[in-house]
Hints:
By secondary structure, the chain is an alpha/beta fold. The protein has helices at 3-10, 15-18, 27-61, 67-112, 123-165, 167-214, 216-221, 225-273, 283-305, 307-321, 383-390, 418-424, 439-446, 452-461, 488-501, 518-529, 544-547; strands at 342-352, 358-367, 372-376, 398-405, 411-412, 425-429, 437-438, 478-479, 506-510, 536-540, 552-555. The chain has two domains: 15-321, ABC transporter type 1, transmembrane domain (ABC transporter transmembrane region fold, Up-down Bundle), CATH 1.20.1560.10; 342-559, P-loop containing nucleotide triphosphate hydrolases (Rossmann fold, 3-Layer(aba) Sandwich), CATH 3.40.50. The chain is built from 17 helices and eleven strands. Helix 5 crosses helix 10 (307-321), helix 6 packs antiparallel against helix 8 (225-273) and helix 14 packs across helix 15. This is ABC transporter ATP-binding protein.
Amino acid sequence: MNAQDTHTATRGDDPLWGLIPYLASHRLSLAWTGLVGLANNLALVFLAVAGSYVVTLALAEGQLASPRWWIAGGAAVLLRVILTWHEMDLSHSIAYRVLAALRMGLFDGFSRGVPSRSPGQHTGRLAATAMGDTEKLEFFYAHTLTQLAAAVVILIGGTTALYQIGWSLAAGFVIGLATLVLLTLPWLRTNVRLGETVQRAKSNQSALAVDLLSGSREILGFGLQEHVQRQLAEATEVVARAERHLKVREAAAANVRELCSLAILVVVFLAAWNQPALDPLWVPAVVAGTLTLLSPLMDAVAVLTQLQPHRASAARVLEGISMAAEDLSAAPVLPFATTGPLGINVRGACFSYADGAPALEPCWLSVAPGEHVGISGRSGAGKTTLARLLARLWAPDAGSIELIPRTGRSVNAASVDLRVFRSLVTLVEQDAIIFHGSVLENMRLAVPGTTEGQALDALGRSGLVLDAGRWPDGVHTTIGEGGTSVSGGERARIALARALLVQPRVLVLDETTASLDAATEAILLDAVAALAGDTTVITISHRESTLARCDRRIELDNLHTEPVSQPA
Ligand SMILES: Nc1ncnc2c1ncn2[C@@H]1O[C@H](COP(=O)(O)OP(=O)(O)OP(=O)(O)O)[C@@H](O)[C@H]1O
């Protein structure tokens, strides 16, 4: 099921249920885990009843129980060993799968939802959702849900069994449990608040840690260390205080549960003792059976008191999974097999981010196959936005973008298979991300299997020579996360080299030369010029020297009027 459809179908519903469609492929495993857990519980009830009966018989009557009891008891012990082992195995495997499904859904949502990110969203908080909330929910879906389902069966089965002995036993059992639930309800509201406080404070901690790591230079530069340390300490203190408070309440709730269990056992014992039809030898067995029935039920009640924070976690995960997705494959996929450079036709394409303000007003632009066009414009005019639309990182709100082959019909870019499109059009941005790893690993992100020779050739063409002093391990030299250990100019050249490896038929450069000195800019522009004729190049720049190398220069603000005659 498409994630977006799912969200539309479940919006406004309970988020805990809303996430279930994302785990649909695991439902059989979940059901099986629940059944195994239930069978294990029932085997334990049987063992408790049989064990008590055998011991009571021996103590009260001095008799050894018949072999049937010993065989059945041995079989139950063996069954429990097998079921416990199987249950552990199953529940670990399902837990990892549920965690993976939630996290993959979330990462998918984050990556598709990039354009809709509002300033209110912080990568640190999103990371906290991806790590903390998913783990909490993994436990809920892989364990709690099956535990609750098993508890319902145990409640019905246990009440029925006790009713068979006498209605007063069943009544004592049910009334005792109902009293416990009623006593538990008033705790819920405070637990919700505390759970939320813990989660919010953890989120803040995560956001602060990300700020601290990614903005370390600003923090040093502005002398903010003490300020950040204080904020981190406060966030930690909030978490510790709320968690302490929650733990105290949980301990008190556990005491209440134990008291209720005790009361139920006393009631069941008295009711069983007063059953004329029940052999007194069976009374301890009934009490032991009730005790083993109560254990999963008490756990279920404890879980119910902790459900509300799970609901908030589920809401955050659901929001992440269903982040306003770019439906990049809205148009039906058409075959597109042409050779040579591709022209571009922008027909009234426009775009707004989540805040609704137009980032790019409708614009019209025609670039011939093999042409090298330079686009300039005032800051904030929408040049980067246009570049990202051209690269289909997201889709225009209205209008369209077409690819024009030298021969044959032009085709709407949205109807080209996304994988094929990625091999045709490549974007290099000024702040292109370099991942943690070696230079070669970064090159292989674009084209897996790139050889050292190919990487060196592409780097050389981009004006980056890996001399032994600066790059002791050549293409195997590690470059830090985000390219922090390379200069802005080196990063731009690595990014261009990575794009050249793709051999795109349209290359979009967004301020790629902005941080280069004149000599390196010239080398890089020579590399771009060498593509002339074979690759269409759209260069966005403020730099006169870069724009001067283009066949044609365009001001973005002049593209907002629809031309009188548009190519068909
Ligand atoms: N993620 C975002 N969310 C909301 N608004 C955004 C986002 N990114 C950019 N904008 C806004 O969209 C508008 C166009 O931004 P864009 O980066 O395309 O401009 P630009 O012409 O490339 O600017 P510059 O020359 O300064 O790089 C600006 O008003 C900018 O503030």
